[in-house]
Write a structure and sequence with these properties.
Layout: H1 15-18, E1 30-32, H2 41-49, E2 54-61, H3 62-66, H4 70-76, E3 85-90, H5 94-105, E4 112-116, H6 121-124, H7 136-149, E5 154-161, H8 170-179, E6 184-191, H9 203-209, E7 216-219, H10 225-235, E8 239-242, H11 244-248, H12 252-262, H13 271-288, H14 291-298, H15 302-305, H16 312-320, H17 325-340
Parallel strand pairs: 1-2, 1-8, 2-3, 3-4, 4-5, 5-6, 6-7, 7-8
């Protein structure tokens, strides 16, 4: 049964309509990863202004979306300037995922991505996210159902396996997902049981890339422009996805583009640019949320934004104990004058 959910429709000329899917990967894009409570519309805009070629939303709970959950609906809204952006969905029921994909399609994203990589126990433990890797055959059938339900391209983000398998399933799984109609794969090169521990093994992305003709995106431990170039050179992949490193340093996207396109290292952000990003993020978060919450959620980024500044610890401490936008802006202005003196 189809469940109608009212969603604001984005421009009918979204990336999926105006730009062929394959063209998204021609320049080996630097992609903002889907991160819960991070990759929202505000942060996507900040990263895009600093060089992100493509963004993916926070992951959207298929069950919540079908129930009309306000949070799930909010994550699906794509403004005309939020392009190209993909919508990522997750869930454990194939039919419900297919229905959620149909709703996501109405927002005109660049493509619909299925989360088969989230390792968090409360997600994977109930069969969603990386839980699909426990049963690759079921994962392939689920993907086939979603592909057959929507007209937009469907992609999958996954890991190299669930547990400490001697032979990871990703290579055979990549072939089978391509046969199911999946148009691209993002491979986080750790197992689900590793979480974020240990080193990502990019060689698995290379092995998967060697057996498919669809784009493969390498993910995991991309912490610098040099990492991005090395990952692409070693794997032959079609792009890099950047997650946790972007939380502290969204300038990384521009640094990747400069190195890939021009072979040069981009100059690090100046103190003024670092303080300006703090202001920009604060203002945008407060404009789209309440003042209290907008100030609070920006704090997670301050360590990285202020890194390297003279007196960074003191600036961060002052901001962490300030709950008003006006107070935070005053602190940033004072620190800007101090650093310029």
């Amino acid at each position: 049964m189809s469940l109608a959910v009212d969603l604001p429709l984005a421009s009918p000329l979204g990336a999926s309509a105006s730009q062929p899917f394959e063209a998204l990967f021609k320049a080996r894009p630097a992609i903002l990863a889907p991160m819960e409570d991070v990759s929202d519309a505000v942060f996507r805009a900040l990263c895009r202004r600093r060089g992100a070629d493509l963004c993916v939303t926070e992951f959207v709970n298929a069950e919540g979306l079908l129930r009309g959950c306000r949070t799930a609906k909010r994550k699906m809204v794509l403004e005309p300037d939020d392009r190209p952006t993909a919508i990522q969905i997750y869930g454990s029921d194939p039919a419900r995922l297919a229905e959620a994909a149909r709703i996501a399609e109405a927002a005109r994203p660049a493509f619909v991505d299925i989360n088969c990589g989230c390792w968090v126990p409360k997600i994977a433990g109930r069969g969603a996210g990386a839980g699909w890797l426990r049963n690759p055959a079921a994962m392939v059938e689920m993907a086939k159902l979603v592909v057959g339900t929507v007209s937009l391209p469907v992609t999958v983000k996954t890991r190299i396996g669930y547990g400490p398998e001697n032979e990871m399933p990703i290579v055979d799984l990549a072939r089978r997902l391509e046969d199911a109609g999946v148009r691209a794969l993002t491979i986080h090169c750790r197992t689900a049981q590793m979480g974020h521990s240990g080193a990502a093994d990019w060689s698995w992305a290379a092995k998967a890339k060697s057996v498919v003709s669809i784009p493969v995106i390498v993910n995991g431990d991309i912490k610098s422009a040099a990492d991005a170039k090395r990952a692409l050179d070693e794997t032959g992949c079609d792009g890099v996805m950047i997650g946790r490193a972007a939380i502290d340093h969204p300038w990384l996207f521009g640094e990747v583009r400069q190195l890939l396109d021009h072979g040069v290292e981009q100059a690090p952000p100046t103190p003024a640019e670092r303080l300006a990003l703090c202001r920009e993020h604060l203002l945008a978060n407060v404009a789209t949320r309440t003042e209290t919450y907008g100030v609070k959620v920006t704090r997670r980024h301050l360590t990285g934004y202020l890194r390297g500044l003279r007196g960074a610890a003191s600036i961060r401490k002052r901001l962490l104990f300030c709950d008003s936008l006006a107070g935070c802006l005053e602190i940033l202005a004072e620190e800007g004058e101090r650093l310029a003196a």
